[in-house]
Amino acid sequence: MDSWFINYQKGGNVLPHAHGNCSWCCVYYVQLGKDANSTNGATYFQRPTPLRTQTDFGSLYNKSLILSAKPQEGKLVVWPNYLMHGSYAYAGEKNRIVVSANVVVLLTKDNKPIISL
After folding, report:
1. Is residue 54 one of the residues assigned to a domain?
2. Residue 9 DSSP class
3. CB neighbours (10 Å) of residue 32?
């Protein structure tokens, strides 16, 4: 559907949002400093449902409201379009450079998928 890149300078981040015009979203980490971690330059995802108190093994997904994808150069993270997501500020000396894209998946008359970037 569309793609873009972002060159974050020190402290750059993205506030939580979702994409309504696609099926899937992704981010590819092009450049990061070695100090990137799950709260420094990471992409995070917010739970689409309210926090629940059930904490048995089958309900461990209820444990937190936010999940972070640890950034790593060369890593591609893909998620469904409805998930609220953003990025933590990156405090490293090297700029954080990412490429992001939205993908639409359609089916042909014979039910074969067509992926549109």
Report:
1. no
2. P
3. 24
Residue 63 belongs to domain with CATH number: 2.60.120.620
The string over 45-75, giving b where at least 16 C-beta atoms fall within 10 Å of a residue's C-beta and e elsewhere, is: beeeeeeeeeeeeeeeebeeeebbbebeeee
Condensed to tens digits (0 to 9), the pLDDT of residues 75-106 reads 999 999 999 999 999 898 889 999 999 998 88
Residue 14 burial (10 A CB sphere; 0-12, 13-18, 19+)? middle
Which pLDDT does position 100 carry in this prediction?
A: 96
Q: Residues 35, 32, 61, 54: what is their CA dihedral angle, to the nearest 10 degrees?
A: 40
Q: What is the pLDDT of residues 32-51, one digit of tens each?
A: 988 889 889 999 998 877 66
